[in-house]
C-alpha cells in the first residue's frame, strides 16, 4: 500500500509521458479489493479495523485507474485504456465511473461484443449484490453505444 501511494504521489504533476508508466506500475500492484484475504488469513487480522483503510484505498485505486484511463484515452491507446479500467475494477468491481470508462474504451476499439459483456456483467454484479439498477449514466452510455453499433451494422 505504501509503494502504491508513493507511486501515485510521484506521478502527480508529471507530464503524461512520464506519469503513464508510474501510474501503470502502481496499478500493477492491485490484485483485488483492498484488504481482502482468504478465509484462513482473515482470522489473523480480525483485530484490525480496516474499514477506513478499505474505503480510502479503494478510492485511491479508482482515481489512479481513472487518471491512467484518461491519459491513455488522450493518447488514443484504447488497449491501455481498457487495461487501466479493468485494473481499477479489480479493486472496485461495481464502480460506475470505471465501468463507463471500460465501455467507452471497448467502443473506441470497435469491440461491441466486449462492451456488451461488460454491461451485462455489471448489471449481474449489481443484482447479485442487491445494489439495484445501473446508474443512469451507465444505462444512457450503453443505449448510445448500442445505437451507434446498430447504425454501423
Write up this protein:
The chain is mainly alpha-helical. 73% of the residues lie in helices and 0% in strands. It has eight helices and no strands. It has helices at 2-11, 16-27, 39-42, 51-74, 78-91, 96-109, 112-128, 136-152. Helix 5 (78-91) packs antiparallel against helix 6. The longest helix is centred in the middle third of the chain and has 24 residues, at 51-74. The protein starts with a helix and ends with a helix.
Gap between N and C termini: 46 Å
How much strand content do the residues show?
under 5%
Number of strands: 0
DSSP helix fraction = over 70%
Mean pLDDT: 89
Task: Tell me, briefly, the overall form.
Answer: flat
Computed over alpha carbons, the radius of gyration is 17 Å
Could you give the order of the helices and strands? Answer: HHHHHHHH
Q: Helix/strand/pairing class, anyone?
A: mainly alpha
Q: List low-confidence stretches.
A: none
Describe the biggest sheet? none
- The number of distinct helices, counting runs of at least 4 residues, comes to 8
Write the layout of secondary structure elements.
Elements (H helix, E strand, L loop, with lengths): L1 H10 L4 H12 L11 H4 L8 H24 L3 H14 L4 H14 L2 H17 L7 H17 L1
Helix pairs in contact: 1-2, 2-4, 4-5, 4-6, 5-6, 6-7, 6-8, 7-8
Amino acid at each position: 500500500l505504501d509503494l502504491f501511494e508513493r507511486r501515485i504521489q510521484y506521478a502527480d504533476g508529471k507530464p503524461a509521458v512520464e506519469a503513464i508508466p508510474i501510474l501503470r506500475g502502481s496499478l500493477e500492484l492491485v490484485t483485488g479489493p483492498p484488504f481482502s484475504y482468504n478465509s484462513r488469513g482473515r482470522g489473523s487480522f480480525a483485530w484490525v479495523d480496516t474499514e477506513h483503510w478499505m474505503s480510502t484505498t479503494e478510492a485511491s485505486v479508482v482515481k489512479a485507474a481513472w487518471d491512467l484511463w484518461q491519459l491513455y484515452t488522450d493518447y488514443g491507446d484504447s488497449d491501455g485504456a481498457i487495461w487501466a479500467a479493468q485494473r481499477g475494477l479489480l479493486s472496485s468491481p461495481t464502480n460506475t465511473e470505471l465501468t463507463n470508462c471500460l465501455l467507452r474504451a471497448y467502443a473506441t476499439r470497435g469491440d461491441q461484443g466486449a462492451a456488451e459483456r461488460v454491461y451485462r456483467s455489471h448489471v449481474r454484479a449489481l443484482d447479485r449484490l442487491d445494489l439495484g439498477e445501473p446508474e443512469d449514466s451507465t444505462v444512457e452510455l450503453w443505449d448510445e453505444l448500442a445505437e451507434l453499433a446498430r447504425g454501423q451494422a
